[in-house]
Amino acid sequence: MINEIMIRFLKYILLVFVLFSCESKKEETLFKLLDPDISGIKFQNNLKFDNDFNVYKYRNYYNGGGVSIGDIDNDGLQDVYMTSNLNSNKLYKNLGNMKFLDITDKAMVGGKKAWSTGVTMVDINHDGFLDIYVCNSGDIKGDNKQNELFINNGDGTFLEKAKEYNLDDIGFSTHSSFFDFDKDGDLDVYLLNNSYQSIESFNLKKNERPNRDILGGDKLLENRDGKFFDISEESGIYGSVIGFGLGVTVADFNRDGWEDIFVSNDFFERDYLYMNNKNGTFSEELINQIQSISGASMGADAADIDNDGFNDLFVTEMLPSEYERLKTVTTFEDWNKYQYNVKNGYYHQFTRNVLQHNNKNNSFSEIGRYSGVEASDWSWGALFFDMNNDGLKDLFIANGIFKDLTNQDYLQYVSNEEVVKSIVSNNKVDYKRLVDMIPSNKVENHAYLNLGNLEFERDPISGLEAPSFSNGAAYGDLDNDGDLDLIVNNVNMISFVYENKSNENKSNNFLKIILKGSNKNLDGIGAQITVKSEKEDYYIEQQPARGFQSSMDNRPNFGLSSNNPVSIEVLWPSLKISKIDSVYPNQIITIQEKNAKENTTEQEIKSDKIFYEKKQNYSIDHNENVFVDFHRNRLMYHMCSTEGPAIAVADINNDGKKEIFMGGSKGFSARLYDLESGKPLNENSFFEKNKFSEDSESLFFDADNDGDKDLFVASGGIEFSPNSIDYSDRLYINDGDGVFSVSNGNLDFKKNNFSTGAVAISDIDLDGDLDIFIGERLHPFEYGIPGSGYIYLNDGEANFKNESGKNLIGGENLGMITDAIFEDLDNDGFNELIVVGEFMGVEIFKNKNGVLSKIEDNPLSEIKGWWNVIFAEDFNGDGFKDIIVGNHGTNSRFKASDKRPISLYINDYDKNGSKDPILTFRAENNKDYPYSLRHDLINQIKILKKQFPNYDSFKDASMKDIFSENQINNSYIPIVNNLRTTLLINQGDMNFNSAYLPKEVQFSPILGINAKDFDKDGDLDLVMGGNLFGVKPEMGRYDSSYGVFLENYGDAKFKFHSDGKGLIVKGEIRKIISDEDLLIISRNNNNVVIYEY
């Protein structure tokens, strides 16, 4: 896989070289913007101020228009239709050579309604000519908004017949998608509508979703002999007044041959994912398959971005990609508002684009932040297509809003009482002045090159990133040269017509397919096409309606990295199949459904599961207490109070059966359970006394050398005041029958009263008993201040003495310790101590005669991470223990490297007696900038308001601009330069090399790790898990992992399995224990899951 990525990258570099090598071609780009005087497309969607109809009276005023591409006269050239909001729509005939002629008037397709939005070309009456269906919206006086259907007469003219087909809907229609959802041979339609009702009028506590909107609402219309009938309610489609649909995406997400539907909703309503039940109904499955979504969802597209044969899903939002825009136009919901929305059924919505990677098992992992596509500003149309014909689908996003209502300085200004008085007089609002004051700034469109491995990168030579006010867009091969050109509809600007020049790069190839369907679906809409090459397969579904209010060239175009022959397989909507072998690239091929055969190949259902979930009679539950870390520290982004539960497994009464200890959160008592049945044991009362502690770590070990397992429970969290007795760790002594009592021995660790983050045991001094290492997690009220490590030596009778000063050299102020283990890393018979934590490296303490000394000049100390967990085993079979360390991962808005680290500035900047921890990133100019927005930083440090009176003054302020040199110099500044979960291969002599782990490991924070030969092939496999939900909405929770199973192919070469070989776990995994043939997984605020293997 790495080699393939390198080859693709080198090809990309070669293309850059070709385009820039010649003096005459210095300005050439992949796409060339055509002069409208030459192309003939001079379309502008002009919106002028109107006192009776403007953005303050119609919220979608600047949403813009759409584009449709299709061959309306069957001359082999793709024509173009563009919608206008206030003026005539336009139809352009393709004359060849990228020249077009406006034939709107002759064709009679300008439209008679005032506010056109989405447009779809479709052969609705199956006569062999494309018709045009236009959605209309707005609320202009005297206009009744009916959608229009222009039936193609086949002679260059059209007749409007929406009423005859029962498609003259009067809702605020946004877009339509035609498809044969019921496999009866004709095309039905999903009609996307936007609610009439104003946003402010809703009671969010009232569940309006099941209640149908009689004026509008989304509709599924069934085609019955050429007329369409609303079957929404009986088919399971929502059509409520809270539907703010801006995008509809039809695709077969589970590859069962039947098309499903995704709807992206703006504002507070969540999106919908309708799975086709194959019986005329759909099941809305979003919350079962997708863990988090965009907040104000807009345009969307579905495509197979990694050539695994399954559709992935991208949805646009409004998070800016440029720092200055982020600081001036963005605000985020706080934790309380987010929880309020979740409680009332609006799900986990966040301000960013999302890329939902299809796991091929009816689940998706949101990886937009991993892929680098989460932020593109005020985004509308999103389109996946292979821009450079290298076999990978790239991403184009149309951006911009003509009047930016989110500008924070504007919102502050117009909310000023004096300004309000000047705008409102005699109960009349001066709308012109109100609108004129709104800033109008063009935003660059975004073009991302697909690098493979689910990674995208802004393409500097695309030529597509013009600053604009862009909305709908469509791609198509307008000049039939084998690459896809692009047309973009703009507000108050001439539209963009881009000619794709990638055909000049002879190293890449194409294959264009024309589908000739049967029955009443002549263009084969819904067909699934797979092109198979020697190295990989390429998959496209025939669905022209995509992106935002637009529809595409209906001839699927495949980019191919090789000119070797390929085979083609088409699964038609009728479920018949066509197969063609030995097809050479760089041609247009026609495939007809009439030659297709019945699909007699039955899918082989092969089970190669390793893990089987064990059902129990009782549920072993963890309950998290209600505590919001962000209320105590406004500048934190991740909760530290939800890192439990602490679990441990042992046979506590020597009866041959295992028990499990489940630690409690604050206010919930810990408990012991029978592991086999999950039944709680009777002997649990001794934990009640300490139920107000937060149990952060636990382990069974024989503390008093009497042959049974005693129990150590550490107290952690962040809920208590410094030095609270609720931070005291405990030792419970086992009487031999599994009955525990709090130890009355001399226990120096009881005096600590700090938040414990790590506990590890070993016979440090080799005297025959087990000693304890305890690591300090954090200082309450002082996030970021480093904690220390402590050694407590056992006298053999469970009395533990603090010998840190003598037996632990270098343990002071280590960091925010999260985990520690003892392992013999150099095979000298002495266990080293390895300690990790937040803003820490991987610290190793060498054991010499019972004294643990931190290794100086340890290269691993310089790998600073947000480490969560550490595990050691010999993964390559060389006899040395290797180390794997669970980190934050790279599917996050936080990015860190040696050159551009994350830094945490800690100081009492406002001299109020409390430390202010300010998290920053290093920009390309080598300056550190705060992640916090202006209002969040001012809420923490009030004196900054005078220094930065508005958002514009703060937009480019670095830490050195915000604080004095003296304040910076007196700050404690720990850093992070690596966020990847990392495998360190032991080379001997305490030297380690970093080894590759599959990308899926980085999709979420890893907090639990275990290893065993799960597949019984002789080497150690890995199981990992994590996720973190206690995250500020600004950053969005980390929920993309369902547990990770990595198969060891030998020599520590690991392979990810998307099906987990049966291991699929939702939720926040905290600890993974392998015990005999059981895998025991604890989850925060959830029950324990047990798998047999």
General description of the model:
The chain starts with a helix and ends with a strand. The relative contact order is 0.08. 10% of the residues lie in helices and 34% in strands. Residues 1-25 have low confidence and may be disordered. It is mainly beta and 1093 residues long. The chain is built from 18 helices and 77 strands.
At a glance:
With 1093 residues, this protein is mainly β.
- Share of β-strand residues: 25-35%
Percent helix: under 10%
SS content category? mainly beta
Largest pleated sheet: 6 strands, mixed
Q: Low-confidence parts, pLDDT < 50 over ≥5 residues?
A: 1-25
Name a few traits of the molecule.
1093 residues; mainly beta; 6-stranded mixed β-sheet; disordered N terminus; globular
